[in-house]
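My current task is to audit a protein record that another person submitted. Alongside the sequence sits a line of tokens, each denoting a local backbone shape. Please read both lines and tell me whether the tokens look consistent with the sequence. Do not assume that whoever made the record got everything right. Thanks in advance; the entry in question is below.
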Amino acid sequence: MQALVERLRTWARELGFSQIGVAGIDLSEAEPGLQAWLAAGFHGSMHYMQAHGMKRARPAELVPGTLRVITARMDYLPRTSSIDWQAMEWQGLADPQRAQVSMYARGRDYHKVLRARLQKLAERLGEAVGPLGHRVFTDSAPVLEVELASRSGIGWRGKHTLTLHREAGSMFFLGEIYIDLALPVSEPVTAHCGQCSACLDACPTGAIVAPQRVDARRCISYLTIEHDGAIPLELRPLMGNRIYGCDDCQLICPWNKFAQKSTVVDFDPRPDLSAPSLLQLWAWDEAEFLRRTEGSAIRRIGHQRWQRNLAVASGNALAKKEDLALRDVLMKLLPTASDLLAEHLHWALAQTPAPL
């Protein structure tokens, strides 16, 4: 069976995965932490997390017959990234006229990429062992991905709650294959965050409320992607120019100096999303938004939420420097804007540069 796992790792590398592990299915030790997180309301409006309850920590309830979980890591740092990519990202965040999109979302939708390749990997395993009960997941079901990744040796849970690897940082996606085959489990690795608190200190909104504890209601990734209502007023100025996701806790992490470049072309950044200006993105009507985000993870938030995020970033830009062209765009949108967008546009237009 161990030889089979080694063959599985070879097949995985051929499919673009960077690492494979095997986890057991007893996650009972993780249940108290999950219950406490939900009880605190840290999941915000992601009601499905409450609805799924403890199924997230019980793989055999999610997929009956499951005996093991194959975990997979796929690096997504673009192949064209320069050696000073972290400094380049900080530079982009410092430019209020620029619209900052999280690095993972600049290429093809990772759900599509990983799911298809995980399915191929499962089929390859089935060809080797015979009929195989399985189901693949990529951030698409009640799965404790980081817990499974930690138990299977992919890495350890960092203080920002993401999986960290000593030789790859955290710039990677996770995927899982639930199987009814008792493969030998992988050895977990020890944690190496030590006394470092860089991610907690760097979070723009203070969403990392304690080591390994994130209040999603304050997280910019949640606010710009999952949250479908108004952005809380007190958080808008803290969002800067981040219009889809946030990378700050990863950019500041010392382990990401070891981040590995992806071997998968799907994660090459689209020119439209690499370093766009706010004005460039405001020019997209709904049809243009749908066309330019086809096959992208961004598309699922819809045009209205996209414009809401742009409005917040525009307000933050106007608070730093008067921009007549940007102000003109916001004014022209007001007459036909939905109530949600109009409220954010009015807020943005009310922002004025701080006195010198």
About this structure: Residues 76 and 262 are 5 Å apart (CA to CA). The radius of gyration is 21 Å. The chain has one domain: 2-349.
